[in-house]
Amino acid sequence: MRYTRIVTAVLVVFATYSISAKEAGLLTASGFGTADLSSVTIAAQAKMMARRAAIVDAQRNLSEQIKGIRLTGGTTMEEYEISSDIVATRVKSLLAGAFEYDQIISEDAQSVSVEVVMAICVNNEPEVCRSRMNMQEIEQFIQSNQPAGNE
User: Fold this and answer.
1) In sequence order, what DSSP letters do the residues of 114-125 get, joined into one string?
2) What does the buried/exposed string (b/e) look like for 65-99 if buried means 16 or more CB atoms within 10 Å of the residue's CB?
3) Which of 93, 88, 35, 89 is nearest to 59 (CA)?
4) Are residues 47 and 111 in contact, defined by beta-carbon separation less than 8 angstroms?
5) Max CA pair span of the chain
6) Is 65 within 8 Å of 18 (Cβ atoms)?
7) What is the pLDDT of residues 65-115, one digit of tens each?
8) Distance from the Cα of residue 42 to its chain's centroid
9) Is the pTM for the entire model greater than 0.85?
10) Where are the domains of the chain?
11) In a 10 Å sphere around its CB, with 0-12 CB exposed, 13-18 middle and 19+ buried, how is residue 127 labelled?
């Protein structure tokens, strides 16, 4: 007789703020992107693709630190043995006030790699944050500009 049992677990993991070691008052996250030079006709296009991938990765990592991630897992068992294991993560957030803090581009004969550091100001202490809104000010701005029906 064949038994199949599916077990699904949903975890919500909340990450804590990790203030940048480089500069107190900044919440930072790194992202990485690469592009193969053989897949494009212009090298600048590969740089732009790798940079965009790095920015999106850094934004996702920054969102994970602020909002947390949703981790969903599923296990299928047949005849008392695991036949399939699936784990997926999901991040859903509005990222306002983030800016590019640093960027490193590396090139070789075959590919372009880009590392981008995105940041958001936790307070206005760092020099780079003095002319920017911090997280609390952004939250207040978003709440005060919501339409009346969306509260």
Assistant:
1) EEEEEEEESSS-
2) bbbebeeeeeeeeeeeeeeeeeeeeebeeeeebbe
3) 93
4) no
5) 69
6) yes
7) 887 767 677 878 777 777 787 777 777 777 788 899 999 999 998 999 999
8) 28
9) no
10) 4-19+43-144
11) exposed
Helix extents (H) in the chain: 43-67, 135-144
Tell me which residue of 38, 66, 62, 43 sits closest to 114, measured CA to CA: 43
**Tokens standing for residue 130:** 């003095």
Dist CA 132 CA 99 (whole Å): 10
Q: Say how far residue 92 (Cα) sits from the centre of its chain.
A: 10
Is the CB of residue 114 less than 8 Å from the CB of residue 51?
yes
- 42: helix, coil or strand? coil
**Tokens of residue 65, six digits:** 């630190």
Q: What angle do CA 105, 42, 59 make, to 5 degrees?
A: 40
Token look-up 């969102």 returns 63
